[in-house]
Write a structure and sequence with these properties.
Layout lengths: L1 H6 L16 E5 L3 H13 L3 E2 L8 E17 L5 E15 L5 E15 L5 H35 L1
Parallel strand pairs: 1-2, 1-3
Antiparallel strand pairs: 3-4, 4-5
């Protein structure tokens, strides 16, 4: 069964097929929730998130990480009905010797959600879930870019 699953291209959700030269990654900067998403995605991809830049194939430097929440609409009672979440960060990719592989680039992700005043606690949980998904999407974008850069440099 395992042989059939691997032959058909099956892989765990969220897992990447990383090139051999990207098996050790170091993340510099960033918030704890973002670093946790890097940890999970790199682990699911059979790679290792290093605790130092020594021996790392690629160093991901995170700058200007920012999460904003904005009210989009109000109810007749003046309560918030709809919110927009915007997550933005800048990053650079470098090697272990601190040679830049890419210039500083940005990732920006936004989501809107309805805030039902009757289910306030559930909506708080929904916002936390949306934030986690936004961190995941940012990590996927950065790891995909890193993969492309490493594959281009290998040729």
């Amino acid at each position: 069964m395992a042989l059939l699953l691997s032959a058909c291209g099956y892989h765990l959700r969220g897992a990447f097929q990383l090139p051999e030269n990207m098996k050790k990654v170091y993340v510099e900067g960033g918030s704890e929730p973002l670093r946790e998403q890097f940890r999970q995605i790199i682990k699911a991809s059979s790679a290792q998130l290093g605790s130092s830049r020594e021996g790392a194939a690629i160093v991901i430097k995170i700058f200007n990480e920012d999460f904003n929440r904005r009210v989009l609409s109000l109810s007749t009672r003046g309560k918030s009905n709809e919110f927009e979440l915007v997550y933005r960060l800048d990053y650079e990719l470098a090697n272990a010797r601190d040679t830049l592989l890419t210039e500083r680039q940005s990732v920006e992700i936004s989501r809107e959600y309805y805030n039902d005043q009757q289910f306030v606690i559930a909506k708080d949980n929904e916002e936390a879930t949306i934030r986690t998904e936004m961190y995941q999407q940012a990590v996927h974008a950065i790891v995909n870019r890193a993969r492309v850069v490493l594959e281009a440099n290998a040729k």
